[in-house]
Specification:
The chain is mainly α. It has one domain. It is about 80% helix and about 0% strand. The protein is built from 5 helices and no strands. The radius of gyration is 23 Å and the shape is elongated. The mean pLDDT is about 85.
Length: about 170
């Protein structure tokens, strides 16, 4: 016996099918964003160890060089924190209002009205599956936008950190 998927359930409805496909694309892009941030973070954590282990500083490094190197390292750390923020799970959506699409919604409804409230919210979502899909797509899209914003900021900070550290190593 096969269990019908949400796409099978709303396939007769063009709006539902489109909403289902859009939600699938957003979920796939969420996975790609997490992968990008994870790969970048691995690089970010490995590169300083390689640089420190192979760096040979002179006995009396210049103050400017050390200051630039420290500033580059600090800015690099901001980039790493931004990438960690991209990977960390989100506990909330930006949407205010009705709809149960996220685990925080389930917890909030359960806290307010118990399991019966959660069941009522799920039942209400099942009445209009296309509307529920669109609401979930909006929720996940806001999370995706935040993840990519963190990745962009992280890469920007990393670039500035590399420039500062490189200038510092050249000036030492």
């Amino acid at each position: 016996m096969t269990v019908p998927t949400l796409v099978d359930t709303v396939e007769g409805n063009g709006t539902g099918y489109a909403a289902s496909r859009l939600l699938t694309f957003v979920r796939e892009d969420l996975a790609r964003a997490d992968t990008k941030a994870s790969v970048l973070l691995s690089f970010v954590l490995a590169l300083p160890a390689l640089v420190v282990s192979s760096a040979r500083l002179p006995d009396r490094p210049s103050t400017v060089g050390v200051a630039l190197l420290a500033l580059g390292g600090l800015v690099w750390m901001f980039g790493a924190v931004s990438l960690v923020r991209a990977i960390l799970p989100r506990c909330r959506t930006e949407r205010d209002g009705p709809g149960i699409t996220f685990y925080a919604d389930v917890l909030e409804i359960h806290r307010e009205s118990g399991a019966a409230g959660v069941l009522a919210a799920v039942t209400a979502a099942g009445v209009e599956p296309a509307a529920w899909l669109v609401t979930q797509t909006v929720d996940l899209s806001s999370i995706l936008a935040r993840k990519y914003r963190c990745i962009r900021w992280g890469v920007s900070w990393l670039f500035l950190g590399v420039v500062g550290a490189t200038a510092g190593l050249l000036a030492v």
